[in-house]
Amino acid sequence: MHLEPCSITSLGGINPTFRADMDVVHIDEKWFYRTRNTQNMYLSHREEAPHRECKNKSHIQKIMFLSAMARPRYDAQGNCVFDGKIGVWAYTEWVQAKKRSQNRLRGAWELKPADTVDKEKSREYLVKYVLPAIKEKWPESDRWNTIYVQQDNAKTHIKPDDPLFLQEAARGGWDIRMIYQPHLILLTQTY
């Protein structure tokens, strides 16, 4: 739970307050359509309309993105020292073309959106992209504190005790841990 322990009393917690959570990186996925059926564009007389293509307008391809972000940090003068933006990555994979077309030969490698995202793909992106980005962008002043990577409770996410994640997270002396998003608890007060 992300409440300050000192703000919760045994009598029901009259005034619970949330922690600052400066040590939490939030990760989440989102599906997007590559294009829309209809789209209004305002172009000048010198601009050409962008080229859009899809096989059929009822089968518009979707692509999933993984994003990671944390709370921004400011110094005493109000200057931003860490913007909190860790990164955004598209779930893609390299596949060989099955057929020849006017754009490429049969067997040529092309980058395509991933059809499915499972635990293996989720682990791969955490280890290959998210952890290195956290280690690169995290403020040096908080480098030796524990960092929590918070994910929602989707079935495709890895468990907090995943051995490959723990091994890569500890590389270089870092203390990065995976946690689940806390469940929603309704606090009610009676008067």
Automatic annotation (TrEMBL):
Top-rank taxon, per record: Eukaryota
GO molecular function: nucleic acid binding
InterPro entries associated with the record: RNaseH_sf
The protein, known as: Transposase
